[in-house]
Design goal:
Helix content is 0%, strand content 50%. The chain is mainly β.
């Protein structure tokens, strides 16, 4: 099973940007749909975005309103989530996941914490 490692989280001021990375352990990564999710304290896990194995199809949660962009580089076994115009309500633990469906959920990476200060 592919191992996923999420990174790139941190502390940022409201209005700022961060880019998260989801790196995979092997080349079979390119076969899978990869998605990003987040979970804030005392809230349910929320789907954010997903990208097909080739990168030609993406889907986003309506709530993001174009602030986040998902992309992938299969040569680097990595999927990215560019997050712009961050808000305090974006504070959460962010996870990446892989699978064969939209959204994916067959295997998960560990989370990376994003904290947005007001």
């Amino acid at each position: 099973q592919v191992q996923l490692v999420a990174s790139g989280g941190g502390l940022v001021q409201a209005g700022g940007s961060l880019r998260l990375s989801c790196a995979a352990s092997d080349r079979t990564f390119s076969r899978y749909v990869i998605g990003w999710f987040r979970q804030a304290p005392e809230k349910e896990r929320e789907f954010l975005a997903a990208i097909s194995w080739s990168g030609d199809r993406t889907t986003y949660a309506d709530s993001l309103k174009g602030r986040f962009i998902i992309s992938r580089d299969n040569a680097k076994n990595t999927v990215y989530l560019q997050m712009n115009t961050l808000k305090p309500e974006d504070t959460a633990l962010y996870y990446c996941a892989g699978g064969y469906t939209f959204p994916p959920g067959d295997f998960w990476g560990q989370g990376t914490q994003v904290t947005v200060s007001s």
